């Protein structure tokens, strides 16, 4: 049993979604790093420089002379606070109005007392918002005379980042669309032709040949496609020749077989026992060859028929199966078998009466032929998911999976339970498959060595 696998189409879509998710995550992570590592750091450096500049202006010209510089900073959307009150300097440093709501911890106060310009990033107590600011101390004779604080609300910085997000998202969407177009192009150029060739190979394996091939492509897949097309055409030509040969051979054998059969029947009337025994063998083999010829001719006719050129008519399927059961019951009783039958009587399908009879007869007759004397065969006709379902189950020798997969191949004879002494020639189920296909149905076969075989025919039911 082959291991389950993920189709190449699913793999492509998985790659697309994975790359999209990774791209989105990478984009936002990159934006965050740029915001935190470059933009905020640049703001910190600028705020520190502004605070140092104001402190130097304050030291050189006094508080009144720096008002123009403070106004200039405020016009640039910076907040400035110059604290000279010794009581406030000894306890806290205001950042926003009201100034009494803003505190500086002990470690920051110690840094300011040493004359070091510090950068503060904290939650605003009053407004519950983040602030980024720089505090520059003005120290005279070892005493903290004033502190200049320049800050900007982080919300403003975030607003600028949010303003960039539409451009980032637009770029990201454009990249995802480009990736989508590229994958669609790859699928159309490489994947889709391969899937069509896979379907064509599957059709060939079931005895039919594709009528459509992928378009001509000027790449490696195109070369494979052309090679596959030549192979399919060559196989089709050989198959046509083989069918013509079998058909011609069958017609040519009909006449001499008729003579052999007729003469053997005459010899059976002879008084000589030895002659009658030889004639019996000849008659038996000529009958077998006659069945072979007729089945080959019949199969050739069926292969030339399609669902479009047959006229189906409403049928009560139980009536057809009942006729088949009456036909085979004597043969089953002769082998001492238990042949049971149950059916739903109201199943109506569209079909060909004679051909449906032939298909059901082949399946049930096979079960009788390959089940040992005294065995059991159950024939059940019912409905399943809007279909008429005929299931024929026997407790014969059964077959392995390799045999089951090839049972509908022409002239295939499984190694187990399907020997020549049973009279089979390997065309019965091939004919059944063609007949079921003509009825828009399907044929399923399950088997287990030593347990038995179930052959199921499913044909769409005519719903009122």
UniProtKB/TrEMBL annotation:
GO BP term, example: cellular response to phosphate starvation
UniProtKB keywords: ATP-binding, Cell membrane, Kinase, Membrane, Nucleotide-binding, Phosphoprotein, Transferase, Transmembrane, Transmembrane helix, Two-component regulatory system
HAMP domain span: 188-240
GO cellular component labels: plasma membrane
SMART domains: HAMP, HATPase_c, HisKA
Residue stretches making up the Histidine kinase domain: 248-463
Name of the protein in its database record: histidine kinase
Transmembrane segments: 12-35, 164-183
EC number: 2.7.13.3
Catalytic activity, as annotated: ATP + protein L-histidine = ADP + protein N-phospho-L-histidine
One example GO MF annotation: ATP binding
Membrane topology: Multi-pass membrane protein
Keyword hit for Cell membrane: yes
